[in-house]
What we know:
Elements: H1 13-23, H2 27-50, H3 69-79, H4 89-104, E1 110-119, E2 125-134, H5 161-176
Amino acid sequence: MAIRERQHHTPLEPTLNRLRDVVARPASGIWIARLLLITLIGVPLWLALAQFTPLAVVPASAAPTLFSGERAMNDLNVIAQASRPMGSAAHAATEQYLIDRLTELGLQPQIQATTGVALTENGDVWAGSVRNIVARIPGTDNTRGILLAAHYDSVPTGPGAGDCGSCVATVLETVRA
């Protein structure tokens, strides 16, 4: 009984065979082969990288039910005007801004004042007064709740747009939408 070897073909096999034929030709074939190789590598690479291109920012004029980066940026511009370390006047102003915005959005924000305590790895204990702004959106279904959280303080040396003013602006725009 004779055993036949099964031939396996890949979708790229005809293209690779043509590439081999072109490479076997004189100098002009080398350039064509290089161009073909660049195309075979470049196009998939370009398509992969195109997925990481940010989408266009949704303008503030967009439908009210859409999340708008432009609307979120408006809040961030107010929140990140100055450093907001806990206990500072800027922190208190930001807190009031957030309470006002949440109230504008039809919520009833409340302040939860408490003491936060943390034990560091080297045994030091840090404690401080913290103020959380809590607002609840009533659900329409008998399911579990969703928590949206962000801190609105910043380090004393910067306005905290990325830590975490952008988080606060995102939460506000999500609640609004």
